[in-house]
Amino acid sequence: MNTCLAPCPVVFDLDGTxxxxxxxIHATVNAVxxxxxVPPLTLDQVRSFIGGGVDLLWRRVIAxxxxxxxxxxxxxxSFMTRYHDASALTRLYPNVTxxxxxxADRGHPLAICTNKPLGPTxxxxxxxxxxxxxxxxxxGDSLPQKKPDPAPLRAAFAGLGSDPQAGLYxxxxxxxxxxxxxxxxxxxxxxxxxxxxxxxxxRHSANFDDYAHLPALIDQRAPVG
Length: 225
Hints:
It is a single chain. By secondary structure, the protein is of the alpha/beta class. It folds into two domains: 10-20 and 91-221, HAD superfamily/HAD-like (Rossmann fold), CATH 3.40.50; 22-83, Orthogonal Bundle (DNA polymerase, domain 1), CATH 1.10.150.240. 41% of the residues lie in helices and 11% in strands. The strands form two sheets. The protein has a six-stranded parallel beta sheet with strand order 5-4-1-6-7-8, with helices on both faces. The protein has a two-stranded antiparallel sheet with strand order 2-3. Specifically catalyzes the dephosphorylation of 2-phosphoglycolate. Is involved in the dissimilation of the intracellular 2-phosphoglycolate formed during the DNA repair of 3'-phosphoglycolate ends, a major class of DNA lesions induced by oxidative stress. This is Phosphoglycolate phosphatase. Keywords: Carbohydrate metabolism, Hydrolase, Magnesium, Metal-binding.
């Protein structure tokens, strides 16, 4: 096991990793469905659709509800007008703020790489007062590519002035695990997020279920600086 001899860059996913946003996304999806007189989806259904960005979310909603695929663009537009300020039901996972503070105090450069659009990403980070902790924020519309394509994660590390192999990626989902493999970066799996695959079937360097444990885990697992 390597020990981090110098502060290494750490990039985080957002939904299901730092924040539990499923209740707000669920409420916003159902608000749009009500406009079209479509029966609401359950929280578990919508949670299972999260991770691939808004376009994929709505492709899955359309498939689940039997709506016309031709309505996709209008549904996404209607969703986005409500999504930017959807924060009332979203919560940080326990000990996230404290863990980020410890990492920042130890000199670790921090970034976000998410498939959530950039506007709502910055809005929710601002809502929780942590947007300033991240030197670089890559959203789902920052580049033409989305995770699991490696381009967004590479851009996040580039924004920190680092090579991906010198850092760590922290996420919760299959999209994150595959993106880490595609980018050749060590992956730390937060196990209380939105993954659907058993932990043992996901490629990762280590896993954790409490952010109170993350700083020590990073010191133990991080590549030598």
